[in-house]
Every structure is written in structure tokens, then in C-alpha cells.
Specification:
This protein folds into 2 domains: about 180 residues, Nitrogenase molybdenum iron protein domain (Rossmann fold, 3-Layer(aba) Sandwich); about 120 residues, 3-Layer(aba) Sandwich (Rossmann fold). The protein is an alpha/beta fold. The chain has 10 helices and 8 strands.
Length: about 325
């Protein structure tokens, strides 16, 4: 599929043609699909942008379909940013049509193919959850600063400074994750979740990651998969599994019940943010807060000592 590559490169190449249409006095109207991208745009663009994110806390992007209000917002936007890599699978047609009329940038597809993870069950479709590795996410976001400057050249100095600071904060939370997770012995580094959203996390931080569903929540979780994971929990004496804020906990609870039936106690180690951040206006409703929460929750549940309140003391 060519839409996303064209969206990333084409929008930057044609930017001078449309940038002049945006008044220097008016903020750039930007629409993003996910909250993670929205958070980045607000921080990087500052007063030069007015950002609307279509998907809020607890919203699953894999099955999300654009509403009538979404279509209006997308049509009126000066710029649209989405994750790409088939994350927003139900919105591809809408975004493809928009890409012929305005800059539509697929943030995740700025990354080279050699850093993208593949899944045997999804031929030709890489794992889209690239934000789960902060350094990788910073690399994906770096070209966005150029797109913002091209669209709002009057604010270049502020955009450059804000972007540099934001990307530094993204990398800093990744450094925190490395620090708190490094205290865990290798045998404890097993993460079992509702779906395979943590592949990049696992590759970056040395975890074995297992999801009940595949990389898309649209895939079915069969009884055989649940039985397999129950056997793993029992055989390896794994004591904690994790639920996700944007995915039903039904299958996770089935794992716990299955292990209990075999005499092995498993608890919920905590609730993780996977495909969506926390509520708007909260620390966990930012990318840094989301990842701080995940790193701290995982490390604590699996036996590591973690700072009270996480990296910045802001977790409750």
C-alpha cells in the first residue's frame, strides 16, 4: 500500500504550496488519530497549532471507524497525522482520499523497515505499536518538526526549541524504563497481556512478551491460545499478568481462572496503557506519563523496587 509513504514524503515536498494559505496569526489546525500523536503535536507546536485528537482515553484504534464529526474535523484540518502501519485499519480509505488534498502524515512510517517488527500471522503488515519503545518513537516524531515548520514558518524558532525539548523528554522516560526494569532478573522478564501491543517494548527492554490476541484486537482469541498461556503460567510459575485500558479484561480473567483450576495463583499486576493514553488533563494522559506508568507498574509487579510516584513522583 502506497498511501502512507506518499503521505510522509509528499506532504513535506509540497508544503511550500499550502503553507502560504495558513495565516501567520492563526494556529495551524491539526487533527491526529491517536492521543500519543496528539500529545506530541501539542508539545512540539505550542501556540502555532490547534490540535484535535480523534481517539481519547480507552479507545481502541484497531477497530475505530471515523464518525460524522470526525470527517468534518478531518476535512477542515490544515494537516492530519496518523500512526499508519495499519494501526487505524478502518480509516485507511478516508485518510487516502484526504491525502490527495492536504498533508496527511503517517508518523510510524517515517521509520525504516529494518527497525519494524513482523508477525507471522500478519504477512506484509508490520507491528504498528512503535510508540512502545521511546527511542524509536522519538525517531518517528523527529520529521514532524520539519513538517510543522514548513506549515508555520513564522514560528520556526519556537517549534524547533519545543520539538527538541519534547523529544528529549521522550528519550528521558525511555532511560527511566531501562533503569527500573534492569533490576529484574531475566527469568522475571515475562509480560503477558491481552494483545500483542508490547513487542517493541519487549525487544527494547529484554522482555519475553505474550499476548492472548495478536497485534490487532480485531483478531480472535481462541480457547487453544488461552490453554497454551495457562500451561505457561503454571509451568513457569508466573504470578502476574496485565490488563490494558483499551482492551476488555475478559480473556485475562480467563487466564487467571484457568491457572487457579490447576492450583496456581495468578494476580493482575496492574493496568497498562497500550493503544491509548490516560484521561485528558492527567499526567497519564501524556505520553511521558503513560510510559512512566507502564514502566513503574511492570517493574513493581514483577518484583523490582521503584521510586514512589514513578520517574517524576507524579503517579498516584
Amino acid at each position: 500500500m502506497s498511501i502512507t509513504r506518499r503521505s510522509v514524503l509528499g506532504s513535506l515536498m509540497t508544503a511550500p504550496l499550502w503553507a502560504s494559505a495558513v495565516s501567520a496569526a492563526a494556529p495551524l489546525r491539526v487533527v491526529t488519530t491517536t492521543g500519543m500523536i496528539g500529545d506530541a503535536l501539542r508539545e512540539m507546536g505550542g501556540a502555532a497549532v490547534d490540535v484535535t485528537s480523534l481517539m481519547g482515553a480507552g479507545v481502541d484504534p484497531h477497530g475505530y471507524r471515523a464518525t460524522r464529526n470526525d470527517i468534518v474535523a478531518l476535512t477542515r484540518a490544515d494537516m492530519v497525522l496518523w500512526n499508519g502501519l495499519f494501526l487505524e485499519a478502518q480509516m485507511i480509505d478516508v485518510l487516502e482520499k484526504l491525502g490527495s488534498r492536504k498533508p496527511v502524515i503517517a508518523v510510524g512510517e517515517a521509520l525504516s523497515n529494518d527497525v519494524l517488527l513482523r508477525h507471522a500471522e500478519y504477512e506484509g503488515k508490520p507491528d504498528p505499536h512503535v510508540w512502545m519503545a521511546p527511542d524509536l518513537w522519538a525517531d518517528a516524531l523527529a520529521p514532524v518538526a520539519d513538517a510543522l515548520v514548513a506549515a508555520a514558518p513564522h514560528a520556526e524558532g519556537d517549534i524547533r526549541a519545543r520539538s527538541q525539548a519534547y523529544l528529549a523528554s521522550v528519550r528521558a522516560v525511555g532511560d527511566y524504563g531501562t533503569k527500573v526494569l534492569s533490576a529484574l532478573p531475566q527469568e522475571s522478564r515475562v509480560l503477558i497481556t491481552a494483545h500483542d501491543a508490547f513487542g517493541y517494548f519487549g525487544a527494547n527492554f529484554g522482555f519475553e512478551v505474550m499476548g492472548i490476541q495478536g497485534i490487532s484486537t480485531e483478531s480472535e482469541a481462541g480457547l487453544q491460545r488461552i490453554r497454551e498461556l495457562v500451561d505457561i503460567l503454571v509451568a513457569r510459575k508466573i504470578g502476574a499478568v496485565f490488563v490494558e485500558t483499551s482492551v476488555s479484561d475478559r480473556n485475562i480473567r480467563a487466564l487467571i481462572e484457568g491457572a487457579a483450576a490447576k492450583g496456581h495463583e495468578v494476580t493482575i499486576g496492574g493496568e497498562l496503557f497500550s493503544d491509548a493514553m490516560g484521561p485528558e488533563g492527567t499526567y497519564q494522559g501524556t505520553y511521558v506519563g503513560m510510559m512512566d506508568h507502564n514502566f513503574t507498574t511492570i517493574a513493581a509487579a514483577l518484583g523490582a523496587d521503584v521510586p514512589v510516584g514513578g520517574m517524576q513522583g507524579r503517579l498516584s
